[in-house]
Amino acid sequence: MREIRNIVILTGAGISAESGIDTFRSAGGLWEQHRVEDVATPEGFARDPDLVLRFYDMRRAAIQTKAPNAAHLALAELDANWPGELLIVTQNVDDLHERGGARRVLHMHGEHLNAWCTCCDARHRWTGPLIDRPPCPKCEARALRPDVVWFGEMPYHMDRIYRALRGADLFVSIGTSGAVYPAAGLVQNARELGAQTLELNLEPSQGSRLFHESRLGPASAVVPQWVAEVLAG
Ligand code: NAD
Fold it and tell me: Which residue of 92, 98, 170, 178 has the lowest C-beta tally within 10 Å?
């Protein structure tokens, strides 16, 4: 097995579950009683923008009351102390990695705490509501939407993610069901590029057999344990 210098970590909703943020699957495929087609697609937004803006206003307010858990803190510790390349690619739209102290983080599905102006393309840090159609601070158009990647839209940062995978010796997937592509395909890409692959999850994901190793348990237990091992060499 080759020496581990460069690590790519993919996180999903499961890493934030113990912070009190529902995973998608635990909600039975419904978000706060709404169908994904209604609140997480461009078509749903075009059909009923008020419903979608209210839905995200509620979630944006809710995540600000949550705190990072031991898994976020452990990854931040790894980020601070790992001498090689490291990239945390998160599918999560919460900011718990950053509030836990991690710096090398990419949000491939956008961020709840960002608003995107569909008129001038600017992105702004946004903690308040959007339902009243506040003007864009840059161009003043009333065209702000949540900066969250909806189904059918292109995830962010894919070039940087594939570049990191090309140099990765180890790919670790944490708390993701492996149901949403292209994130779910990253383990296959990592394997083809020669990386070792490790899954940390509460239960085996859909792509579990693609990992060289799987460790099952709550993220707050298995992630700190794995980080301690890696840092110990
Ligand atoms: P998912 O809901 O499809 O899967 C969650 C996974 O987490 C499952 O495999 C489950 O076994 C695992 N899990 C649950 N509790 C866990 C725990 N305590 N410790 C470890 N693992 C645990 O989520 P997904 O794969 O991330 O894909 C759904 C999409 O919805 C993604 O885009 C995701 O980012 C988004 N989403 C984000 C958030 C958030 O930002 N926190 C919350 C819900 C959904």
Answer: 98
Residue with CA nearest ligand 1 atom 44: 24
Superfamily for the 7-232 domain: TPP-binding domain (3.40.50.1220)
Is 109 one of the catalytic residues? yes
Please pick, among 34, 109, 112, 124, the residue that the annotation labels catalytic: 109
Under 8 Å between Cβ of 72 and 15: yes
Q: What spacing in Å lies between the alpha carbon of 158 and ligand 1's midpoint?
A: 20
pLDDT along the chain (233 residues), means of 10: 89 97 71 83 97 95 97 98 97 98 98 98 98 98 98 96 97 93 94 96 90 97 98 91
Nearest-CA residue for atom 16 of ligand 1? 14
Q: Using alpha carbons, select from 153, 161, 148, 182 the residue that is nearest to residue 63.
A: 148
90 Cβ below 6 A of ligand 1: no
Nearest CA to ligand 1 atom 14: 14
The pLDDT value recorded for residue 210 is 93
User: Could you give the residue ranges of the DSSP H alpha helices within the chain?
Assistant: 14-17, 36-39, 42-47, 49-63, 70-81, 96-100, 158-166, 186-192, 219-232
Q: Residue ranges of the domains in the chain?
A: 7-232
Closest C-alpha to 95, from 85, 86, 80, 106: 106
Is 12 near ligand 1, meaning CB less than 6 Å away? yes
Give Cα separations from 232 to 116, 171, 226, 229 (angstroms): 42, 18, 10, 5
